[in-house]
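Quick sanity check, Benzoquinone methyltransferase:
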Amino acid sequence: MKPDLLPGYMYMRRAACYSWSMTTPGDFEFESVYRGDGPFGPDVAPPWSIGEPQPELAALIEQGRFKGEVLDAGCGEGAISLYLAERGFTTVGLDLAPTAIESARAEARRRGLDNATFEVTDITAFTGYDGRFGTVVDSTLFHSIPVASRESYLTSIARAAAPGAAYFALVFDRAGFPELPEHGPAPVTADELREAVSKYWVIDEIAPARIHANLPDGLDSPAGDPLMRFEGLRDEPNGRKSVPAWLLSAHLG
């Protein structure tokens, strides 16, 4: 990858569910990445779209930790919703990127999954699902939301949750990012995650975890720009890389 394209990955995930009109240097609209207009070129999937659930969340599913109808918050192209729907769950995926939602809908049709639905909406302000979901899953969304919007996001998903609902979130660990750009993602410490979420949910566990991605060549080592420096980057099967994360498990009291 060309050096001038390297900052793109760190900016993209924060824009993921907000499709903002980016005006500062290096920023761009996340929707364009799903359209193939981003820095990775045409027909190249975003690094975070790995075609299946993040392994940490897939393990929870196989352990039987998901229950009831499932809200997939910031679903992107719907990998976790589709995986769950194939296992008999009714799922609703919400995201602000229309191209990602259309991709998820098309894949649901292809697989014959009428129990997986997808809608374009702002995850920090959506309505119409009050008390519905037995499980809310957040696969790398939390750190993509501006810190100032976290309260609105947490309020919205708690409103949509049924009594006793489970909440699982996979979030970048602050320790994996030695230096952060002003407009990059917002990784957290375990204490920061606990403080934010515990206002709305009862925390059961915050455990060290990994987030997997198809990182382009050149992102796995310092490139002279602090935007691209990861601590604890690790090689994974299938040519992927993983970075440190937190896996939060909580329930609605």
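Posting the structure with no commentary besides this: The chain has one domain: 3-251.
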